[in-house]
Amino acid sequence: MNDKFYLITEDLGNLVRHFLLRDGSQETRDLPTDKILVAPRRLLQTEIKHLLQEHRVLVFKEAYFRARLNDQVDKNRSADRLVVAMDYYASKPDYILHITRVSIPDQNAPGKWVKINDPRHRPGELSVADQVRSISNIAKQNQKDIVLVDDGIWSSGTFEHIIKLFAENNVRVVKIVAGIVAKKDLTDSSILDRTDFLHSFESKNMADWICERDFFIGSPFFGRTLGTNGGSEPDPRGIGIPYCQPLGDCDWASIDPARAQAFSQLCIKASKSLFLEIEKHLGRQIMVGELRTMPLGAHRQPQMPFVDWLDQLAGQI
């Protein structure tokens, strides 16, 4: 074992309850996710530790991470500030920026992907610039500054982009609250100076940091979002690209090519475990077309039971 951490932050409890289904159905709001997630999480975490045994796999539990992050948010609330969340960890933010990571097919390398660096809006939402402009207008009308909240800072690129957009609208971002900070040589020091965080790691000591949802195909906002128009916007159908074969890229999860097949099989197995648990509590099957984030390829079969599609996908590994 080396000294590098492979960090996983649990985040599916809140997401499954509020964002699993495309129609925003109340059907999932009261799901006992604490019970539903026990078996899928145990499966994923046990097998990922075995698969990546050369690293120290560290898991931040959702209840702990969310409570601590919201404590920091509450400490930074004031009458002259608006709390703007960039993900879904924060409780009761004033506003949420609905942003995502977009990738598009590499036209020069079939089967490979091109990452679009600047964040894009989630399907069905206003552009990122328009979201920031709308919040900025309210901030200026009420003479308020901005507190940005996110689960963490891996590089400072997304924060730099959002802070620049607020500045263009003559609004100040005076504080950042983040769960995790990976300290990189190129991280903007001015961003770190204004950030309150729970945990920090030197980037040289981190193999990677992955949100739990990115291992579970079909879960809300998993993976990368398929882009269109050269990556300038997300595909309006809301299509997720998994972090595994045969549809996505295991390198997004820092998985060695020699382990890509085993990792991909694990992601599919864990995803099936999750959806079987959800279906057991719903008392029915979930169809592909019901998912808010449909996996790439699955979107062509919207009437197919999702667990059956996962079995079909497993046969392609």
Structure description:
The chain is α/β, with parallel strands linked by helices and about 325 residues long. It is built from nine helices and 16 strands. The strands form four sheets. Strands 6, 7, 13, 14, 15 and 16 form a six-stranded mixed β-sheet that branches. The protein has a five-stranded parallel β-sheet with strand order 4-3-9-10-11. Strands 2-1-12 form a three-stranded parallel β-sheet. Helix 7 links the parallel strand 10 (about 175-185) and strand 11 (about 195-200). Helix 8 runs antiparallel to helix 9. The longest helix has 23 residues, at about 260-280. It starts with a strand and ends with a helix.
List the helices and strands and how they pair.
Blueprint: E1 5-9, H1 12-19, H2 33-36, H3 38-51, E2 56-60, H4 62-75, E3 81-85, E4 95-96, E5 99-100, E6 102-105, E7 113-115, E8 120-121, H5 128-141, E9 145-153, H6 157-168, E10 173-183, H7 189-193, E11 195-202, E12 206-211, E13 224-228, E14 233-234, E15 239-241, H8 260-282, E16 294-295, H9 306-314
Parallel strand pairs: 1-2, 1-12, 3-4, 3-9, 6-13, 9-10, 10-11, 15-16
Antiparallel strand pairs: 5-8, 6-7, 13-14, 13-15
What would you say about this model in short?
The protein has 317 residues and is α/β, with parallel strands linked by helices. It has helices at 12-19, 33-36, 38-51, 62-75, 128-141, 157-168, 189-193, 260-282, 306-314; strands at 5-9, 56-60, 81-85, 95-96, 99-100, 102-105, 113-115, 120-121, 145-153, 173-183, 195-202, 206-211, 224-228, 233-234, 239-241, 294-295.
